[in-house]
Amino acid sequence: MAIRILRPNLDENRRILVISDIFGNFDALQRLLQKASYTHEDYLILLGNLVERGPQSLQTLRYVMELSRSRRVFCVTGDLDPVCREIFRPDRNRELLQYVLRNPSLVRDMCTELGIALNPDMNMHPIKLALRDYYAEELAFMSDLPHVIETPNFVFAHAQILPGDLEEMNPSDVVRANAFLSKGFSFDRYVVVGHWPTQRYPESKRNANPLIQRTRKIICVDGGMTMLRDGQLNALIIPNLNSEDFSFVSVDNYPKKIAQNSQNAGLERHLIQEPDNRVKILKISGDMCYCRQEKTEQNFWIPKVFLSQRADGCYTEDYTDYQLKVTYGDEVSVVLETSRGTIVKRDGVTGWYYGLLQ
Question: Which residue in 189, 265, 285, 324 is a FRET match for 344, CA 20 to 30 A apart?
Answer without folding.
Answer: 285
